[in-house]
Each structure stands twice: as C-alpha cells, then as structure tokens.
C-alpha cells in the first residue's frame, strides 16, 4: 500500500507520543496511538507506565466523541497485543469499538504476540496495514527489539574523556572532566536505562551513587563487577538506597538491597552478565566504566551504542580512553564546552 502524507503525519505523531513513556514504560516497549475520523484526530495516547493501560486504551479513553470510534482509522506504533498480561488484549478493545482500519508501524517480535494481534483484527473484518515508518519505530524501540531478537540487553557505553584522550589521572585518580550540562545529560541517560554497570576500579576509586539526582525519573538497577568481593561495604553502592547486583567469583549471601550473583571463572565474564540480566528481564544497561570494562565490551563486540563526552580539559597523562575514531559515528553535538559523540554499532 502507498501511504499518504496524512498517514505519515499521523504515525510521526504516534511515535512522538510513544517517546513520552521513556523511562517509565520499561521493560514494556514504547507505544503511541492516534485515532482519526475523516481526516481529524479524535483520540490519542501512549503507554505511560509499566503495568498501566496501554497506548490504545489511553487513546480510546481520551476521545470525547466515542460515537466516532466505529469506522475510525487507528495508527499505532507497535502491533496491538493479543494476550492477557497485566492488562487485557488491546486487539480485543479495537474490535469491540468496531474501528475500520489499523495502521501499524512495527510487528511485535514477542512470541506472545508475533502476528497474532494483527490476525485477530483481520479475522474480525478490520483492515490492517503495516510497515509505516518501520525503521523509525525500530530505532525508537531498539532496546525492546534487541532484547527480543538477541535475548540480551541493549548495551550503551558511556565515558568522558579529556581533549588529549584520558579517562582519569595517573593510577586511576578521579578527575572531574565533563561540564555541568554533560553531567545533567548523564543523569537523563541513566533515567532512560534499566540498569547501570561499573567495574571494580571505578566503584573503588570513584565511590559512585549511580542514581538519578539531576533528572526526573527512576534510578536504574545498579550493577558492579567485584570478582573477589574486595569493595568496602561502606561504599555508596551498598547503602540500600536502590537495588544493587554484585557479580563475583565468590559465594556471598544476599543482604538487604544487594544481590550477589556468582559467575563461573571458566566462562567469559560479560556473556554471563548479559545472560543474567536477560533472565531478570533487564532490556538495557548503561556502562559507565572503567576502562577495562569498556575496552572488553568493545573488543568483544558486546555493545550497541557508545556515548563519548569530550571535554576541553587536558591532563597530559593518566588512564587512556578507548578510541573509536569515526567508525559508526551517528551524531555529534555540543553541551556547553563539551562535545558529545554518539556511535551506533548496528543501526
């Protein structure tokens, strides 16, 4: 089918609505919905909160002209669900409201849906069209699609480096590198991901909180690699303020707010961590260091996106930052005096 300019406009609107659920809908995908009648929007909504009503439900409830729902045209960014989860199937709702047509951006790869939602609509006599702005929808829900198709979280690497290419001072001495705007942006990035990971040295030398303080949203699940359980129990990671997982080669019983996951020394470290996160239904992880962790993930190709903050400060020596060059550079922009480089591995 050849989609019209109006169709494109409505799906762009649905994608914009879907983005409003960022950081709140997880681990569910971001979904937006627009309902039109004779070329006019009569309802719209998005998935606002995990466990809450889906986008189609919110769109239907938003209309003040419910008599127009029968015969309406619905634009939705992801295939309507066909199964009972925390909420009833959205496909059933659209059938009940007797909509005439549903235009879908992306099919849902979740085996619980996987075309069944569209088939249910077609069986009810509703016309279904798919693939409108498909690439944009996949990018919006890249975490969800990576998790469903590769059975691992979407991995975002992040580091700040000086103009002469260092992450820290000599002997891993912590040094403030990025500016205030970049620090706020990092807290926004934390709010957008389900988990945040650091290695032993970063946890030891920086003693980070790994929470969201300068941006509205939920703090991520904290993850730390501590193979030999050498980190001081007084560090912020063990303060119980948010759930924390420690990956280790030593057995240790869980305590309040902290779970210890024992890994095998005979197997590669990071595939084990990613498998462990997948079992927890964690669909994305932000990796904030240190250099050994970052370099290992880059070397093994176990990353999807890298966000590099380059500040004008120079150190003249210290711990070198990983080097990506221009391969995969997707975007570059300024935050105050800092330059931010966004790399994509596959998209």
Automatic annotation (TrEMBL):
One GO biological process term: riboflavin biosynthetic process
Residues involved in Zn(2+) binding: 54, 81, 90
EC number of the protein: 3.5.4.26, 1.1.1.193
Catalytic activity: 2,5-diamino-6-hydroxy-4-(5-phosphoribosylamino)-pyrimidine + H2O + H(+) = 5-amino-6-(5-phospho-D-ribosylamino)uracil + NH4(+); 5-amino-6-(5-phospho-D-ribitylamino)uracil + NADP(+) = 5-amino-6-(5-phospho-D-ribosylamino)uracil + NADPH + H(+)
UniProt GO molecular function: 5-amino-6-(5-phosphoribosylamino)uracil reductase activity; diaminohydroxyphosphoribosylaminopyrimidine deaminase activity; zinc ion binding
Binding positions (substrate): 190, 206, 210, 213, 288
Amino-acid positions noted as binding NADP(+) in the UniProt annotation, renumbered to this chain: 160, 202, 290-296
Residue ranges of domain CMP/dCMP-type deaminase in the record: 5-129
Swiss-Prot/TrEMBL cofactor(s): Zn(2+)
Pathway the protein takes part in: Cofactor biosynthesis; riboflavin biosynthesis; 5-amino-6-(D-ribitylamino)uracil from GTP: step 2/4; Cofactor biosynthesis; riboflavin biosynthesis; 5-amino-6-(D-ribitylamino)uracil from GTP: step 3/4
One Pfam entry name: dCMP_cyt_deam_1
Residue numbers annotated as active site: 56 (proton donor)
Keyword Manganese on entry: no
Keyword Hydrolase set for record: yes
Assigned protein family: In the N-terminal section; belongs to the cytidine and deoxycytidylate deaminase family. In the C-terminal section; belongs to the HTP reductase family.
Protein name as catalogued: Riboflavin biosynthesis protein RibD
Native source organism of the sequence: Hymenobacter perfusus
